[in-house]
């Protein structure tokens, strides 16, 4: 990958050319955002990179891609810049670089976490108990006590959210560095609507270039499967906590219990979404992608897939002797996912959402400026009347 300075300088060069051309106006929020700027600094490039959702439409429309001497390629440029964002804004930065550059980070953490959970079981139980069958209320906690699981996953959850917040604060400070106007509540509402509907992945109705020049909406639907699947599993986990700690009914719950229904729908949704996204990634035109960014994106998708597949296997085989081993493997995958989440592409949703809030703010101010009365039409003030 190019050095940071070369990459940012080349990005500014490309955006200046695009701002003179403006053929891609209306393709996505990036093109409107560059029109609101006369020139670009490094923070603008970081902002634009996280506003791009990597569809490829502008690349296929552009007559100035390689072999043209201008060498314009916004999707590849922004993919490289996003990788820089994930490393620059995380904490500790050295970990971000180490784990971000090693696509095997999740898999090493998965192996270590699984071994640690097995080690805990062997240290606190008779080794033969791993192969025993436990069923009924509280069977998940037969070998690993509930308090231990709560402690480990609360600490990992706080770690993940804490590092995300540190990165979000630094990212926000940079992309807002040249702004004086305050963000209003309505900007947050607009950005949330854009994010929840994946508005720009829809290509304003036609869809985006998922794998080649032909517009399609597959990528948008697969993102919906992953996003809403994640929310359903989160709802399932929260409801399970309510049942366990408020109603004092321990897991596992029956198949038609709301906790299991929500978890199953969410898990299946995420397996469909991640499998489809991986397929689209493999089929994607290599000219649009940066090899390293593509590998780390695929690694993240496979990590999410692994968490969900191990969770579904646990659900299917929870009444058998395989339950203990599957529970340990699933816990290992979730622990690794939480631990590496601040350094993988998962953090993209944090930066993208903040970029959309900044965009909604700019959009509102531009509209207000358009509708503001001109000097000629401006109503006369009391002071003006007085003076005359
Ligand atoms: S990507 Fe190409 S066609 Fe689109 S605005 Fe830039 S220079 Fe023009
Ligand atoms: S690749 Fe798609 S999302 Fe990214 S700048 Fe081009 S048109 Fe916009």
TrEMBL record:
MF (Gene Ontology): iron-sulfur cluster binding; metal ion binding
Keywords associated with the record: Iron, Iron-sulfur, Membrane, Metal-binding, Transmembrane, Transmembrane helix
Keyword Membrane in annotation: yes
Transmembrane annotation, as ranges: 105-124, 144-166, 225-247, 259-280, 300-317, 323-343
Listed InterPro entries: 4Fe4S_Fe_S_CS (IPR017900), Citrate_utilization_prot_B (IPR012830), NarG-like_sf (IPR036197)
Location of region: Disordered: 368-388
Keyword Transferase: no
Protein name in the entry: Citrate/tricarballylate utilization protein
């Amino acid at each position: 990958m190019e050095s940071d300075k070369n990459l940012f300088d080349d990005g500014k060069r490309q955006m200046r050319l695009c701002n003179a051309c403006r053929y891609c106006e209306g393709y996505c929020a990036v093109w409107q955002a560059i029109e609101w700027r006369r020139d670009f600094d490094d923070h603008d490039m970081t902002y634009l990179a996280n506003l791009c959702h990597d569809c490829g439409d502008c690349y296929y429309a552009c007559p100035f891609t390689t072999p043209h001497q201008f060498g314009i390629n916004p999707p590849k440029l922004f993919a490289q810049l996003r990788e820089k964002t994930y490393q620059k804004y995380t904490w500790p930065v050295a970990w971000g670089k180490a784990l971000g550059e090693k696509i095997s980070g999740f898999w090493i953490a998965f192996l270590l976490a699984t071994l640690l959970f097995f080690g805990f079981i062997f240290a606190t139980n008779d080794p033969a108990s791993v192969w025993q069958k436990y069923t009924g209320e509280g069977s998940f906690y037969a070998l690993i006590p509930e308090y231990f699981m709560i402690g480990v996953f609360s600490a990992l959850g706080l770690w993940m959210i804490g590092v995300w917040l540190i990165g979000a604060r630094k990212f926000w400070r940079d992309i807002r560095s040249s702004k004086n106007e305050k963000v209003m509540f309505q900007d947050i509402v607009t950005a949330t609507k854009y994010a929840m509907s994946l508005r720009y992945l829809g290509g304003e109705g036609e869809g985006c270039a998922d794998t080649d020049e032909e517009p399609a909406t597959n990528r948008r639907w697969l993102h919906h499967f992953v996003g809403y699947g994640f929310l359903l599993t989160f709802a399932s986990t929260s409801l399970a906590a309510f049942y366990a700690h408020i109603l004092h009914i321990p897991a596992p719950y029956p198949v038609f219990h709301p906790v299991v229904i929500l978890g199953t729908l969410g898990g299946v949704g995420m397996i469909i979404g991640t499998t489809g996204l991986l397929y689209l990634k493999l089929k994607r035109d290599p000219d649009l992608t940066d090899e390293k960014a593509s590998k780390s994106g695929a690694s993240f998708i496979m990590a999410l897939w692994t968490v969900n597949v191990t969770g579904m296997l646990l659900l299917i085989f929870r009444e058998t002797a395989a339950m203990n081993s599957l529970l340990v493997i699933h816990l290992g995958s979730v622990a690794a996912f939480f631990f590496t989440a601040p350094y993988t592409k998962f953090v993209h949703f944090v930066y993208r959402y903040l970029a959309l809030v900044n965009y909604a703010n700019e959009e509102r101010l531009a509209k207000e400026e358009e509708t503001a009365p001109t000097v000629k039409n401006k109503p006369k003030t009391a002071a003006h009347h007085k003076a005359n």
